[in-house]
Amino acid sequence: MARNVVLVLATLLALGAVLGGYALWAGRPAEPPPARPAMRELPPQVQAPDALQLGGNAVTIPPGGEVLFRVFDERTGRPTDMLRCRDWSWAGEGKREIRVSEPVLAKLLPSGMIATITADEGQFIVERIEQSQLKPKLGWLAGHVRIEVDRATAVERPPAAERPEDLITVAMERIEFDLELGELKSPGLVTVASDDFEVVGTGLHLVWNQADNRVETLTIEQGEQFVLYTAAGLITGAGDTAAASQPESAPAGPARAETARAEQRGARGRGRTTSYACTLTGGIAAEQRRGDEQIGGLRADELRLIFDVGGGAGQALRRGGRDPATSRPDHENGDRLIVRWRGRLELGPTAGPRTPEEGGRRQIVATGRPLVLTRGDGEVRCARLEYHDETQRVWLEPEVGNVVQFSLGPRLTATAQSVYVDRAERSVKLLGDVELRSRRGEGPDARVSTMRSSYWAELRVAAGAEGQRPADGPALEFGRLEAGRFVGDVHVDLGPQRLVAHRLDVSFRPGAEGESLEEL
Fold first, then answer.
1. What are the percentages of helix, strand and coil residues in the chain, rounded to 5?
2. Cα(160)–Cα(506) distance, rounded to whole angstroms?
3. Four-point Cα dihedral 29, 34, 39, 42, nearest 10
4. Separation between Cα atoms, residue 198 and residue 60, nearest integer Å
5. Phi, psi (5° rounding) for residue 89?
6. By the 8 A CB rule, do 44 and 159 touch?
7. What phi and psi, each to the nearest 5 degrees, are found at residue 27?
8. Angle 17-22-27 (CA atoms, 0-180°, nearest 5)?
9. Does residue 227 contact residue 198 with C-beta atoms inside 8 Å?
């Protein structure tokens, strides 16, 4: 779950990278094109065979007609920036505003990805610099505004229509920007979508810090929903973490060399790791669904995600090495996590990792009164949950004076003063006063059995099938208990059988999920 939410948020961060990039090159005179232009690297929709090129410091372009402005990399000859419009005209007084129709802006990002912005129309306020050059300062785009990020980084790449799994799109009706302040606003509905996810909200506001080369603030005033077309590690399983962690398939030949150079330039541009915190508030409700069936859920008042990226959004945006032909998400019948919330989404820089080894964090902190996590017949109630996706560890804490409560099936419950789960070690540690309680039978003849300890208890979860990694399966999987240890004033009450001890080691019968303590 955390890995895919980071992908969504990194897409929004990429808007800042595009904004900052345009602020740096806007108004710069275009270099004369080298002898080996390679326009095929830019998306097909921005190519125009007979478009006019701008160059030099004293070129006059009369209003009307199609215009194409391109900037080339001096070393490679690759086009790095493009501005195109079907026609343009002066607006307002003093020839300080330019009106354009069907504008297309494309930029090659330092990571090798391409960002493209299209709209029906736009208007810019400009200032004159160096005689005839015009530098955009602020303006707007309106009508089917679309920002497309192509996550592929290889120089040679098939047309975008043949690889939809590589594309992320941001759609809105109007966007307003100020390049001097590094500010971008969209007052209406905003939709961010890819093959893996979709996020919908209203009222986007982004501020880009050009000095530090990072997003300073990003807010969505009112959220609607996230949809992640994947398994959610916190709720139902670790998901495809193996594939997601593998590098992209390396291109061959000259493409490999050019990609390596792009990586080096990107690394120099990114510099240090940048850490962000994203907070969602207001009635958060998450459902994990498989087809029409709900298999898990989460209810909380606030959800906070902390994640690290390599000095920008590029690393988090890149796709892993999965084969899209065989593992593209099944949007109708596959797993999907649907998160709805009524409040704001706020994102901004936060304190980075204490050491370089701690980089790459993907951490979720959820709070609620109560916070409820469900899976099948199981349920967990607490006040605070902290989940570290990079280490597969979970901490659960109750409200002051209360306990963490578990429902481990229709007849088995547990309580503790706090809980720590280490999925890699298949260990669940319950601290403080611990109680397991089960009810066998119905009505007045029902029998209640208990197992208590006053110091701590540790439950061991059975390993999965042969070849399955220990971390596979839900983060809070108590159904496959293998063994347990209870320490400190242990009391076991199984009706006719009672036991008192300082320490008790037990083994649980395989295949007895959710049954009573006697049957376990």
1. 15, 50, 40
2. 58
3. -50
4. 44
5. -155, 160
6. yes
7. 85, -5
8. 165
9. yes
Q: What is the DSSP letter of 354?
A: S
The amino acid sitting at 258 is E
Q: Report how far residue 374's alpha carbon sits from residue 363's, in angstroms, rounded to the nearest whole number.
A: 19
User: What residue type is 415 in one-letter code?
Assistant: T
- How far apart, in whole angstroms, are the C-alpha atoms of residue 356 and residue 64? 54
- Rg of the chain over Cα atoms, rounded to whole angstroms, equals 28
- Selection from 414, 421, 418, 417 nearest residue 520 by Cα: 414
Amino acid at 187: P
Amino acid occupying residue 455: Y
Question: Is the Cβ–Cβ distance between 174 and 140 less than 8 Å?
Answer: yes
pLDDT digits 0-9 by tens, 281-292:
999 998 888 888
Residue entry with tokens 């964090």: 361
Do 135 and 127 meet the contact criterion of CB atoms below 8 Å apart? yes
List of residues 6+ apart from 505 with CB closer than 8 A: 483, 484, 485
Give DSSP secondary structure letters for 160-223: GGG-GGGEEEEEEEEEEEETTTTEEEEEEEEEEEESSEEEEEEEEEEEEETTTTEEEEEEEEEE
For residue 445, the 8-state DSSP code is: G
Q: Please state whether the peptide bond connecting residue 370 to the residue before it is cis, i.e. omega within 30 degrees of 0.
A: yes
Q: Which residues lie below 8 Å from residue 172, measured CB to CB, with a gap of 6+?
A: 145, 186, 188, 189, 190, 191, 204
Beta pairing partners, 227:
198, 338
How confident is the model over 444-499, as pLDDT tens digits? 777 889 999 999 999 888 776 444 444 444 444 445 678 899 999 999 998 888 99
- Examine the pLDDT at 392 and tell me if it is beyond 60: yes
Which residues have CB under 8 Å from 52's CB, separation 6+?
Answer: 61, 65, 66, 67, 68
Residue whose token pair is 């070129």:
59
| Max mean pLDDT range (219-223, 331-335, 462-466) | 219-223
Instruction: Give 236's contacts (C-beta < 8 A, 6+ positions apart).
Output: 288, 295, 296, 335, 375, 474
Q: How many residues in the chain?
A: 520
Tokens in use for 3?
Answer: 């890995």
Tokens representing 194 are 């890819």
Sign of CA dihedral 210, 212, 213, 219: negative
> How many Cα atoms within 13 Å fall on the side-chain side of residue 418?
11
The distance in angstroms from the start CA to the end CA of the chain is 32
Does the pLDDT value for residue 116 go beyond 70? Answer: yes
H/E segment holding residue 436? strand 434-440
Residues 217 and 347 sit within 8 Å (Cβ to Cβ): yes
Residues in CB range of 291: below 8 A, 6 or more apart? 332, 333, 334
Residue 477: both structure tokens together: 């999987």
φ/ψ (deg, to 5) at 439:
-125, 125
